[in-house]
Amino acid sequence: MRDSLARLQHLVYAVERESAYLRQTDASLFAQPFDAARAAGLPTQQALSEQVDAFAMRFGRLQDTLGDKLIPALLLREQEALGSALDNLDRAERLGWLDSAEDWVDARRLRNGFVHEYVRDAAVLAANLMQGHARVPMLTACAERLVQHSRARGWV
Known about the structure:
Layout: H1 2-29, H2 36-40, H3 46-77, H4 85-94, H5 101-117, H6 122-152
């Protein structure tokens, strides 16, 4: 039990950092809309390319840490049975930790397109990135709820 509490505390700390870093990158990258022209310029604009990579990595990392690690750790701590990833997301939705398991799964699919699509189609990358940008509040709100839940329970 002590090891699980230490792991939970580490995950909460990681989620706080990952959420803050994602918000920073999101604010910087999307200070102006990300359109197909910006996406087409990625091969010649190293700084922009690195921002896109950072956004995709941070978006994915936060989603992975929340969905694959923190939510299951909290469910266990609450003495809930763990199921498949989708079952855990459905349970997290019922507990009010995330707004929609379906939106979460859609964001996962979108995240997978950040890396693969831009090589072939700048317009698709731009659209995916703008959709990802629109989902940042969903991820960071979930992170905040889970952190607050952990604090309210006295676990961190």
